[in-house]
Write a structure and sequence with these properties.
mainly beta; 2 helices; about 200 residues; about 40% strand; single chain; four-stranded antiparallel beta sheet; Lipocalin
Length: about 200
């Protein structure tokens, strides 16, 4: 092999080595693009349904008062002080005569008590409930409240609802609330001390 050919072979080898050294080494790290995580919105909460009934001696006869509270998804949402959203409630009140005929049957929502509420509770309060308190003269008296839907909150407006013997309802704020809470019947239908309204 002549001198010229040796130089060409040498230059090819050098060029090959330079090209090989200059080549980037492949990284074994796998890079995955970060996916944007969207937090699922909190689902709306509901207060549990409740049912009570009382036997009442009133205006010379015996009546049975039924109260049923239930969440109504068709009502505007309300929220507690932390921004958690809840379904508002309706409360059904039935008064049945001794012979089984119906004296009164109405389902109430928070708007039935709006004249007794401030703007905050009109907007974000839930109808927490109604409970029978006593029969006084021509009236059946109920205690109720509209307030924060958070079961641990003590923010509410106490209400009085009176149903007279003509079937007329009158509502007002309870200005005489002395810390006493109406009794509610236990599962046997007897009266029991209960802290819920």
């Amino acid at each position: 092999m002549n001198e010229f050919m040796k130089r060409i072979a040498f230059l090819c080898v050098v060029a090959f080595l330079i090209a090989a050294c200059g080549k980037k080494q492949e990284s074994r790290n796998i890079i995955v693009s970060k996916q944007q995580v969207t937090q699922a919105p909190k689902k709306q909460e509901k207060m549990e349904d409740v049912d009570y009934n009382w036997n009442v001696d009133w205006v010379g006869s015996t009546y049975t008062v039924f109260v049923h509270r239930f969440a109504d998804e068709s009502l505007p949402m309300v929220e507690d002080e932390y921004g958690n959203k809840y379904y508002d409630n309706r409360v059904s009140v039935k008064v049945i005569r001794k012979d089984g005929s119906e004296f009164f049957n109405k389902t109430f929502s928070k708007t039935d008590f709006s004249s007794c509420l401030d703007d905050n509770f009109r907007r974000n309060g839930a109808l927490l409930g109604l409970l029978f308190v006593e029969a006084v003269g021509d009236d059946l008296k109920f205690g109720g409240s509209v307030g924060s839907p958070d079961p641990l909150s003590d923010e509410y407006i106490p209400l009085v609802m009176k149903l007279n013997r003509m079937g007329t309802v009158h509502v007002s704020r309870d200005t005489e609330l002395d810390g006493a809470v109406p009794s509610s019947p236990n599962s046997a239908g007897e009266m029991a001390d209960d802290d819920g309204v």
